[in-house]
Amino acid sequence: MSVLIVGMSHKSAPIELLERASLDTDAAVKLSHRALDTSSVTEAAVISTCNRVEIIVETERFHGAVEEVSRLLAEHAGLDRTQLVQHVYVQYDDAAVAHLFAVASGLDSMILGESQILGQVRDALHAAQAEATVGPALNALFQQALRIGKRGHAETGIDKLAPSTVTAGLDAAGAVAEEPTARFLVAGAGTMASLAVRTLVDRGVEPERIAVANRTVQRAHELVATFGVRAVMWDDLDVELATTDVVISCTGAAGFVFDRQRIAAATAGRAVTFVDLALPRDVDPSATLVEGVTVIDLVVLGERTESAELAADVEHVREIVEDEVRTFLAAKSASHVTPTVVALRSMATEVVEAEVARITTRMPDLRTEEVEQVRRSLQRVADKLIHTPTVRVQQLVEGPGGLTYADALADLFALDQAAVEAVTRVGGEEA
Which of 8, 23, 46, 50 does the annotation list as catalytic? Predict the structure, then answer.
Protein backbone atom coordinates (compact mmCIF):
# COMPACT_ATOMS: atom_id res chain seq x y z
CA MET A 1 0.00 0.00 0.00
CA SER A 2 1.24 3.50 -0.86
CA VAL A 3 0.27 7.13 -0.34
CA LEU A 4 -1.04 9.20 -3.24
CA ILE A 5 -1.64 12.96 -3.25
CA VAL A 6 -3.59 14.72 -5.99
CA GLY A 7 -3.87 18.47 -5.53
CA MET A 8 -3.66 22.06 -6.63
CA SER A 9 -1.97 24.97 -4.89
CA HIS A 10 -0.87 28.54 -5.47
CA LYS A 11 2.22 27.10 -7.16
CA SER A 12 0.28 25.14 -9.77
CA ALA A 13 -2.96 27.02 -10.34
CA PRO A 14 -4.17 30.64 -10.60
CA ILE A 15 -6.25 32.07 -7.77
CA GLU A 16 -9.39 31.96 -9.93
CA LEU A 17 -9.07 28.19 -10.24
CA LEU A 18 -8.31 27.72 -6.56
CA GLU A 19 -11.48 29.67 -5.81
CA ARG A 20 -13.50 27.13 -7.79
CA ALA A 21 -11.78 24.21 -6.06
CA SER A 22 -11.97 25.58 -2.49
CA LEU A 23 -13.82 23.47 0.08
CA ASP A 24 -15.46 24.18 3.39
CA THR A 25 -15.30 21.52 6.12
CA ASP A 26 -18.50 19.74 5.07
CA ALA A 27 -17.48 19.65 1.42
CA ALA A 28 -14.03 18.32 2.33
CA VAL A 29 -15.63 15.50 4.36
CA LYS A 30 -17.94 14.60 1.48
CA LEU A 31 -15.01 14.53 -0.94
CA SER A 32 -13.12 12.20 1.42
CA HIS A 33 -16.09 9.82 1.46
CA ARG A 34 -16.38 9.94 -2.31
CA ALA A 35 -12.70 9.05 -2.63
CA LEU A 36 -13.15 6.20 -0.16
CA ASP A 37 -16.06 4.88 -2.22
CA THR A 38 -13.83 4.35 -5.26
CA SER A 39 -12.40 0.91 -5.94
CA SER A 40 -8.74 1.91 -5.53
CA VAL A 41 -8.77 3.83 -2.24
CA THR A 42 -8.67 2.38 1.28
CA GLU A 43 -8.11 5.59 3.30
CA ALA A 44 -8.69 9.26 2.44
CA ALA A 45 -8.30 12.79 3.84
CA VAL A 46 -8.62 16.27 2.33
CA ILE A 47 -6.55 19.36 3.12
CA SER A 48 -8.22 22.59 2.02
CA THR A 49 -6.70 25.99 2.82
CA CYS A 50 -6.74 29.44 1.28
CA ASN A 51 -4.01 28.38 -1.17
CA ARG A 52 -4.32 24.61 -1.65
CA VAL A 53 -6.70 21.70 -2.11
CA GLU A 54 -5.21 18.22 -1.75
CA ILE A 55 -6.76 14.77 -1.62
CA ILE A 56 -4.50 12.34 0.25
CA VAL A 57 -5.29 8.63 -0.09
CA GLU A 58 -3.84 5.23 0.69
CA THR A 59 -3.97 2.89 -2.29
CA GLU A 60 -2.44 -0.23 -3.78
CA ARG A 61 -3.29 0.70 -7.37
CA PHE A 62 -1.47 3.83 -8.54
CA HIS A 63 -2.99 4.28 -11.99
CA GLY A 64 -6.52 3.44 -10.91
CA ALA A 65 -6.34 5.76 -7.90
CA VAL A 66 -4.89 8.65 -9.92
CA GLU A 67 -7.68 8.31 -12.44
CA GLU A 68 -10.46 8.15 -9.87
CA VAL A 69 -9.17 10.80 -7.46
CA SER A 70 -8.35 13.21 -10.31
CA ARG A 71 -11.85 12.76 -11.67
CA LEU A 72 -13.34 13.65 -8.28
CA LEU A 73 -11.23 16.80 -8.00
CA ALA A 74 -12.12 17.82 -11.55
CA GLU A 75 -15.83 17.29 -10.94
CA HIS A 76 -15.72 19.31 -7.74
CA ALA A 77 -13.91 22.21 -9.40
CA GLY A 78 -16.02 22.05 -12.58
CA LEU A 79 -13.02 21.30 -14.79
CA ASP A 80 -12.58 19.06 -17.77
CA ARG A 81 -9.62 16.69 -17.94
CA THR A 82 -7.51 19.04 -20.11
CA GLN A 83 -7.89 21.93 -17.67
CA LEU A 84 -7.13 19.73 -14.68
CA VAL A 85 -3.92 18.28 -16.13
CA GLN A 86 -2.53 21.78 -16.61
CA HIS A 87 -2.83 22.71 -12.95
CA VAL A 88 -2.87 19.54 -10.84
CA TYR A 89 0.12 17.78 -9.31
CA VAL A 90 0.45 14.12 -8.36
CA GLN A 91 2.77 12.85 -5.64
CA TYR A 92 3.14 9.13 -4.98
CA ASP A 93 4.75 6.92 -2.38
CA ASP A 94 8.09 8.41 -1.18
CA ALA A 95 7.41 11.73 -2.94
CA ALA A 96 3.97 11.97 -1.32
CA VAL A 97 5.47 11.48 2.14
CA ALA A 98 8.09 14.17 1.46
CA HIS A 99 5.42 16.54 0.12
CA LEU A 100 3.13 16.25 3.16
CA PHE A 101 6.06 16.72 5.54
CA ALA A 102 7.11 19.85 3.60
CA VAL A 103 3.54 21.20 3.66
CA ALA A 104 3.23 20.73 7.42
CA SER A 105 6.61 22.46 7.89
CA GLY A 106 5.49 25.55 5.99
CA LEU A 107 7.99 25.00 3.17
CA ASP A 108 5.24 24.82 0.54
CA SER A 109 3.11 27.69 1.87
CA MET A 110 2.33 30.93 0.10
CA ILE A 111 3.80 32.68 3.14
CA LEU A 112 6.99 30.71 3.58
CA GLY A 113 7.28 29.14 7.01
CA GLU A 114 3.86 30.19 8.29
CA SER A 115 2.73 28.04 11.20
CA GLN A 116 -1.00 28.32 10.48
CA ILE A 117 -0.74 25.34 8.14
CA LEU A 118 -0.04 23.09 11.13
CA GLY A 119 -3.52 23.75 12.48
CA GLN A 120 -5.03 23.22 9.05
CA VAL A 121 -3.30 19.85 8.63
CA ARG A 122 -4.43 18.89 12.13
CA ASP A 123 -8.01 19.91 11.32
CA ALA A 124 -7.92 17.76 8.17
CA LEU A 125 -6.78 14.77 10.20
CA HIS A 126 -9.37 15.31 12.95
CA ALA A 127 -12.17 15.64 10.39
CA ALA A 128 -11.07 12.43 8.68
CA GLN A 129 -10.78 10.61 12.02
CA ALA A 130 -14.27 11.74 13.03
CA GLU A 131 -15.64 10.40 9.75
CA ALA A 132 -13.51 7.23 9.90
CA THR A 133 -12.09 7.84 6.42
CA VAL A 134 -8.51 7.35 7.63
CA GLY A 135 -6.93 4.24 9.11
CA PRO A 136 -3.52 3.23 10.48
CA ALA A 137 -1.51 4.30 7.41
CA LEU A 138 -2.72 7.90 7.04
CA ASN A 139 -3.04 8.35 10.79
CA ALA A 140 0.64 7.53 11.20
CA LEU A 141 1.62 9.73 8.25
CA PHE A 142 -0.33 12.78 9.44
CA GLN A 143 0.83 12.42 13.03
CA GLN A 144 4.43 12.31 11.86
CA ALA A 145 3.87 15.33 9.59
CA LEU A 146 2.48 17.33 12.51
CA ARG A 147 5.41 16.36 14.72
CA ILE A 148 7.89 17.41 12.02
CA GLY A 149 6.11 20.73 11.51
CA LYS A 150 6.36 21.47 15.23
CA ARG A 151 10.02 20.45 15.25
CA GLY A 152 10.86 22.80 12.38
CA HIS A 153 9.30 25.77 14.17
CA ALA A 154 10.86 24.83 17.50
CA GLU A 155 14.40 24.48 16.13
CA THR A 156 14.42 27.44 13.71
CA GLY A 157 12.97 30.90 13.20
CA ILE A 158 11.31 29.99 9.90
CA ASP A 159 8.07 31.73 10.87
CA LYS A 160 9.75 35.07 11.54
CA LEU A 161 8.58 36.49 8.20
CA ALA A 162 4.94 35.87 9.07
CA PRO A 163 3.55 33.22 11.39
CA SER A 164 0.20 33.33 9.59
CA THR A 165 -1.55 34.69 6.52
CA VAL A 166 -3.21 37.25 8.78
CA THR A 167 0.16 38.56 9.94
CA ALA A 168 1.41 38.68 6.36
CA GLY A 169 -1.66 40.64 5.30
CA LEU A 170 -1.27 43.19 8.09
CA ASP A 171 2.44 43.51 7.36
CA ALA A 172 1.60 44.17 3.72
CA ALA A 173 -0.90 46.84 4.78
CA GLY A 174 2.04 48.80 6.16
CA ALA A 175 1.79 51.99 8.18
CA VAL A 176 -1.99 52.26 8.05
CA ALA A 177 -2.31 49.10 10.18
CA GLU A 178 0.07 50.57 12.75
CA GLU A 179 -1.64 53.93 13.23
CA PRO A 180 -2.60 54.35 16.91
CA THR A 181 -6.09 55.53 15.93
CA ALA A 182 -6.75 53.09 13.07
CA ARG A 183 -10.12 51.34 13.14
CA PHE A 184 -10.44 47.71 12.05
CA LEU A 185 -13.36 45.71 10.75
CA VAL A 186 -13.17 41.91 10.65
CA ALA A 187 -15.79 40.38 8.35
CA GLY A 188 -16.43 36.77 9.30
CA ALA A 189 -16.32 34.86 12.56
CA GLY A 190 -14.66 31.55 11.73
CA THR A 191 -11.18 30.29 12.52
CA MET A 192 -9.46 32.85 10.32
CA ALA A 193 -11.52 35.72 11.75
CA SER A 194 -10.72 34.60 15.27
CA LEU A 195 -7.03 34.51 14.36
CA ALA A 196 -7.33 38.01 12.86
CA VAL A 197 -8.87 39.43 16.04
CA ARG A 198 -6.30 37.68 18.23
CA THR A 199 -3.45 38.98 16.04
CA LEU A 200 -4.74 42.56 16.24
CA VAL A 201 -5.09 42.37 20.02
CA ASP A 202 -1.62 40.85 20.35
CA ARG A 203 -0.27 43.74 18.29
CA GLY A 204 -1.63 46.21 20.82
CA VAL A 205 -4.82 47.33 19.08
CA GLU A 206 -7.43 48.30 21.67
CA PRO A 207 -10.54 46.07 21.48
CA GLU A 208 -12.82 49.09 21.06
CA ARG A 209 -11.07 49.83 17.74
CA ILE A 210 -11.94 46.36 16.43
CA ALA A 211 -15.40 45.51 15.08
CA VAL A 212 -16.57 42.04 14.03
CA ALA A 213 -19.41 41.45 11.58
CA ASN A 214 -20.86 38.08 10.63
CA ARG A 215 -24.12 36.88 9.12
CA THR A 216 -24.62 34.68 12.18
CA VAL A 217 -24.71 37.14 15.06
CA GLN A 218 -24.00 34.47 17.67
CA ARG A 219 -20.59 33.69 16.12
CA ALA A 220 -19.67 37.37 16.26
CA HIS A 221 -20.74 37.60 19.91
CA GLU A 222 -18.47 34.66 20.75
CA LEU A 223 -15.51 36.76 19.60
CA VAL A 224 -16.87 39.71 21.56
CA ALA A 225 -16.99 37.59 24.72
CA THR A 226 -13.48 36.27 24.15
CA PHE A 227 -11.67 39.45 23.18
CA GLY A 228 -13.93 42.33 24.24
CA VAL A 229 -14.28 43.68 20.68
CA ARG A 230 -17.44 45.19 19.22
CA ALA A 231 -20.08 43.20 17.32
CA VAL A 232 -21.69 44.74 14.23
CA MET A 233 -24.94 43.58 12.64
CA TRP A 234 -24.40 42.31 9.11
CA ASP A 235 -27.02 44.74 7.82
CA ASP A 236 -24.97 47.61 9.31
CA LEU A 237 -21.79 46.60 7.48
CA ASP A 238 -21.85 49.62 5.15
CA VAL A 239 -22.27 52.03 8.05
CA GLU A 240 -19.24 50.53 9.81
CA LEU A 241 -17.27 50.51 6.57
CA ALA A 242 -17.68 54.28 6.29
CA THR A 243 -15.50 54.81 9.37
CA THR A 244 -13.10 51.87 9.04
CA ASP A 245 -9.44 52.16 8.02
CA VAL A 246 -8.55 48.48 7.57
CA VAL A 247 -10.96 45.70 6.65
CA ILE A 248 -9.90 42.08 7.14
CA SER A 249 -12.33 39.87 5.26
CA CYS A 250 -12.51 36.09 5.60
CA THR A 251 -16.16 35.08 5.35
CA GLY A 252 -16.13 32.00 3.11
CA ALA A 253 -18.99 33.48 1.05
CA ALA A 254 -19.57 32.14 -2.47
CA GLY A 255 -19.43 35.59 -4.11
CA PHE A 256 -18.01 39.05 -3.46
CA VAL A 257 -19.05 40.48 -0.10
CA PHE A 258 -17.49 43.82 -1.03
CA ASP A 259 -18.04 44.58 -4.69
CA ARG A 260 -16.71 47.70 -6.38
CA GLN A 261 -19.97 49.63 -6.19
CA ARG A 262 -20.54 48.88 -2.54
CA ILE A 263 -17.01 49.94 -1.62
CA ALA A 264 -17.23 53.15 -3.65
CA ALA A 265 -20.52 54.12 -2.01
CA ALA A 266 -19.42 53.28 1.54
CA THR A 267 -15.93 54.77 1.48
CA ALA A 268 -16.76 57.94 -0.46
CA GLY A 269 -13.13 58.62 -1.35
CA ARG A 270 -11.68 57.77 2.09
CA ALA A 271 -8.44 55.82 2.26
CA VAL A 272 -9.37 52.23 3.14
CA THR A 273 -7.23 49.10 2.96
CA PHE A 274 -8.88 45.73 2.40
CA VAL A 275 -6.98 42.61 3.46
CA ASP A 276 -8.84 39.82 1.69
CA LEU A 277 -7.88 36.42 3.12
CA ALA A 278 -10.86 34.52 1.78
CA LEU A 279 -11.05 31.86 -0.89
CA PRO A 280 -13.18 32.42 -2.88
CA ARG A 281 -12.30 36.10 -2.61
CA ASP A 282 -14.53 38.45 -0.62
CA VAL A 283 -13.31 41.67 -2.23
CA ASP A 284 -13.74 42.54 -5.89
CA PRO A 285 -10.18 42.97 -7.28
CA SER A 286 -11.41 45.88 -9.45
CA ALA A 287 -12.08 47.83 -6.23
CA THR A 288 -8.51 49.07 -6.57
CA LEU A 289 -9.90 51.44 -9.20
CA VAL A 290 -11.90 53.20 -6.48
CA GLU A 291 -10.13 56.31 -5.18
CA GLY A 292 -8.29 55.71 -1.91
CA VAL A 293 -8.88 51.94 -1.88
CA THR A 294 -6.06 49.40 -1.54
CA VAL A 295 -6.73 45.67 -1.88
CA ILE A 296 -4.31 43.11 -0.48
CA ASP A 297 -5.46 39.62 -1.41
CA LEU A 298 -3.86 36.21 -1.82
CA VAL A 299 -2.49 37.18 -5.23
CA VAL A 300 -0.60 40.08 -3.67
CA LEU A 301 0.62 37.98 -0.75
CA GLY A 302 1.77 35.28 -3.14
CA GLU A 303 4.18 37.74 -4.72
CA ARG A 304 6.08 38.22 -1.47
CA THR A 305 9.49 36.57 -1.62
CA GLU A 306 11.69 34.86 0.91
CA SER A 307 13.92 37.25 2.83
CA ALA A 308 17.68 36.65 2.84
CA GLU A 309 17.78 36.37 6.64
CA LEU A 310 15.46 33.35 6.48
CA ALA A 311 17.65 31.39 4.07
CA ALA A 312 19.55 29.53 6.80
CA ASP A 313 16.35 28.66 8.70
CA VAL A 314 14.66 27.44 5.52
CA GLU A 315 17.64 25.26 4.67
CA HIS A 316 17.64 23.84 8.21
CA VAL A 317 13.96 22.93 7.97
CA ARG A 318 14.54 21.31 4.58
CA GLU A 319 17.29 19.19 6.16
CA ILE A 320 14.91 18.23 8.98
CA VAL A 321 12.27 17.18 6.47
CA GLU A 322 14.74 15.15 4.39
CA ASP A 323 16.04 13.38 7.48
CA GLU A 324 12.55 12.64 8.76
CA VAL A 325 11.46 11.33 5.37
CA ARG A 326 14.34 8.84 5.35
CA THR A 327 13.51 7.71 8.88
CA PHE A 328 9.79 7.34 8.15
CA LEU A 329 10.34 5.38 4.94
CA ALA A 330 12.87 3.07 6.62
CA ALA A 331 10.39 2.33 9.41
CA LYS A 332 7.64 1.76 6.87
CA SER A 333 9.80 -0.68 4.90
CA ALA A 334 10.81 -2.47 8.10
CA SER A 335 7.16 -2.96 8.99
CA HIS A 336 6.76 -4.84 5.70
CA VAL A 337 9.90 -6.94 6.08
CA THR A 338 9.56 -7.94 9.76
CA PRO A 339 6.53 -10.24 9.25
CA THR A 340 8.47 -12.10 6.54
CA VAL A 341 11.48 -12.59 8.81
CA VAL A 342 9.28 -13.72 11.72
CA ALA A 343 7.44 -16.15 9.45
CA LEU A 344 10.79 -17.55 8.23
CA ARG A 345 11.99 -18.15 11.80
CA SER A 346 8.66 -19.76 12.66
CA MET A 347 8.99 -22.08 9.68
CA ALA A 348 12.52 -23.05 10.79
CA THR A 349 11.23 -23.86 14.27
CA GLU A 350 8.46 -26.01 12.79
CA VAL A 351 11.04 -27.93 10.72
CA VAL A 352 13.16 -28.53 13.82
CA GLU A 353 10.17 -29.77 15.82
CA ALA A 354 9.10 -32.06 12.99
CA GLU A 355 12.59 -33.52 12.79
CA VAL A 356 12.75 -34.01 16.57
CA ALA A 357 9.39 -35.79 16.43
CA ARG A 358 10.66 -38.05 13.65
CA ILE A 359 13.82 -38.92 15.62
CA THR A 360 11.97 -39.68 18.85
CA THR A 361 9.56 -41.91 16.93
CA ARG A 362 12.42 -43.88 15.41
CA MET A 363 14.46 -43.88 18.64
CA PRO A 364 11.93 -44.15 21.49
CA ASP A 365 14.59 -45.07 24.04
CA LEU A 366 16.20 -41.62 23.99
CA ARG A 367 16.19 -39.91 27.37
CA THR A 368 14.50 -36.53 27.79
CA GLU A 369 17.82 -34.70 28.12
CA GLU A 370 19.10 -36.40 24.96
CA VAL A 371 16.01 -35.32 23.03
CA GLU A 372 16.49 -31.75 24.27
CA GLN A 373 20.15 -31.83 23.21
CA VAL A 374 19.11 -32.97 19.72
CA ARG A 375 16.51 -30.19 19.57
CA ARG A 376 19.07 -27.54 20.55
CA SER A 377 21.58 -28.83 18.00
CA LEU A 378 19.02 -28.80 15.20
CA GLN A 379 17.86 -25.31 16.23
CA ARG A 380 21.44 -24.01 16.12
CA VAL A 381 21.89 -25.41 12.62
CA ALA A 382 18.60 -23.84 11.49
CA ASP A 383 19.50 -20.50 13.06
CA LYS A 384 22.88 -20.46 11.34
CA LEU A 385 21.33 -21.28 7.97
CA ILE A 386 18.78 -18.45 8.13
CA HIS A 387 20.97 -15.93 9.95
CA THR A 388 22.70 -14.43 6.91
CA PRO A 389 19.61 -14.00 4.70
CA THR A 390 17.56 -12.47 7.53
CA VAL A 391 20.31 -10.07 8.56
CA ARG A 392 20.92 -9.13 4.94
CA VAL A 393 17.27 -8.42 4.25
CA GLN A 394 17.13 -6.17 7.31
CA GLN A 395 20.17 -4.28 5.99
CA LEU A 396 18.61 -3.91 2.57
CA VAL A 397 15.32 -2.66 3.97
CA GLU A 398 16.57 0.94 4.03
CA GLY A 399 17.20 0.83 0.31
CA PRO A 400 14.52 1.42 -2.32
CA GLY A 401 14.06 -2.32 -2.85
CA GLY A 402 13.33 -3.31 0.74
CA LEU A 403 9.91 -4.75 0.09
CA THR A 404 11.16 -6.51 -3.03
CA TYR A 405 13.87 -8.28 -1.00
CA ALA A 406 11.27 -9.35 1.55
CA ASP A 407 9.12 -10.79 -1.21
CA ALA A 408 12.15 -12.57 -2.65
CA LEU A 409 12.91 -14.05 0.76
CA ALA A 410 9.34 -15.30 1.06
CA ASP A 411 9.53 -16.88 -2.40
CA LEU A 412 12.99 -18.38 -1.84
CA PHE A 413 11.91 -20.22 1.30
CA ALA A 414 8.37 -20.94 0.05
CA LEU A 415 6.81 -19.14 3.02
CA ASP A 416 3.10 -19.47 3.53
CA GLN A 417 1.66 -16.03 2.67
CA ALA A 418 -1.10 -16.55 5.22
CA ALA A 419 1.55 -16.92 7.91
CA VAL A 420 3.21 -13.66 6.87
CA GLU A 421 -0.16 -11.85 6.91
CA ALA A 422 -0.96 -13.34 10.31
CA VAL A 423 2.26 -11.88 11.74
CA THR A 424 1.37 -8.53 10.16
CA ARG A 425 -2.08 -8.55 11.82
CA VAL A 426 -0.66 -9.42 15.22
CA GLY A 427 1.98 -6.69 14.92
CA GLY A 428 -0.68 -4.15 13.96
CA GLU A 429 -2.84 -5.08 16.95
CA GLU A 430 0.08 -4.79 19.35
CA ALA A 431 1.07 -1.38 17.96
Answer: 50
